[in-house]
Amino acid sequence: MASAATLVQPSGEMWKKIRVELNEDVNTRDQDLAAIKEWLYKQPHLPDEWDEDRMMTFLRGSSFSLEKCKRKLDMYFTMRTACPEFFTNRDIKRPELADLMNRLHGPPLPGLTPNGRRVTIARGLDKNLDTNQLNDVFKIAMMIGDIRLKEEVEGVGGDIYILDASVVSPSHLAKLSPSVIKKFLICVQEAYPVKLKEVHVVNASPIVDKLVSIIKPFLKEKMKNRIFTHTDINTLYEYVPKEVLPVEYGGTCGSLKEINDAWVKKLEDYTEWFKQQESVKANEAYRPGKPTNYDELFGIDGSFRQLSID
């Protein structure tokens, strides 16, 4: 699979429907973009400039609400400072990251569902995956997220995640770090312009119910109702059509390994870019008012109450 085909963009009628869903007016979006650029330039603690394609992705993910877009952008740059474990040393050729890409697949799929949603599948291939590698797993997820900020040039109608739980074991559960999961969820929900529509857990077992119960307290009510578990793959097709899915899940869009390999190549192509991006973050010393208190941000009290998901 060619690297160029890793993210097929919507067109035609689907494109038109997504514009409506994202609240995007092609006549006014340029002035919205100009307003965000001007706002960013005036924030002493944030980068003066940023590329327009990523700002547009943030506008779309915020349904073109300028205030929401500003909050998301501020949080995005803030998290890049607050979580160096996710946002530094992002070279996919580093042994620990290359190893994970062989033992874990987590690529977005190239096609879109009929209503314009991007599907991402995450599955472990190795029962001996170490939960101590969770920071690196989340680092790779955010690397893919950052590439999508640049390359989803037309915008999508939301995201669907399929989590394959076939290698999850009781020992994983015992060693899981809720604080790491919490940080990651704050990043995804608050700092990235993701419209998360559904999460499907396939190859579910009683262990998975326990895992979901660990994560659920960190989610808002709306999101809790968007998690579906499947013990039979056929019930997944009621939500995600086969033509979008890889052959490993009864689909027709190529193999997950091929798609994952294409993403490894893409991540390698972005190595220099990731290095340059490390300095693009918030500087709390210049933030108007008081600097962000990271303990408060990631603490049990008050953090997840603030989360908002579209």
What is this structure, in a nutshell?
Helix 3 crosses helix 4. A hairpin with a 5-residue loop joins strand 2 (108-112) and strand 3 (118-124).
Structure description:
The radius of gyration is 19 Å and the shape is globular. It starts with 11 loop residues before the first helix and ends in a 7-residue tail after the last helix. Strands 1, 2, 3, 4, 5 and 6 form a six-stranded mixed sheet that branches. It contains 15 helices and six strands. α2 (29-42) crosses α3 (52-61), α3 crosses α4 and α7 runs parallel beside α9 (178-191). 47% of the residues lie in helices and 10% in strands. It is α/β, with parallel strands linked by helices and 310 residues long. Residues 300-310 have low confidence and may be disordered.
Key phrases:
310 residues, alpha/beta, six-stranded mixed sheet, 15 helices, 6 strands
Question: Which regions contain 5 or more consecutive residues with pLDDT less than 50?
Answer: 300-310
Average pLDDT, all residues: 89
User: Main sheet?
Assistant: 6 strands, mixed
- Please state the overall shape, judged from the principal axes of the Cα atoms: globular
SSE order: HHHHHHEEEHEHHEHHEHHHH
Q: How much of the sequence is in beta strands?
A: 5-15%
Please state the structural category.
alpha/beta
Number of DSSP strand runs? 6
Number of helices: 15
Helix content: 40-55%
Radius of gyration: 19 Å
End-to-end separation: 33 Å
Helix/strand layout:
Elements lengths: L11 H10 L7 H14 L9 H10 L4 H17 L1 H4 L7 H9 E2 L2 E5 L5 E7 L9 H18 L7 E6 L5 H6 L2 H14 L4 E7 L3 H10 L5 H4 L2 E4 L25 H14 L1 H7 L16 H5 L1 H4 L7
Parallel strand pairs: 3-4, 4-5, 5-6
Antiparallel strand pairs: 1-3, 2-3
Helix pairs in contact: 2-3, 3-4, 7-9
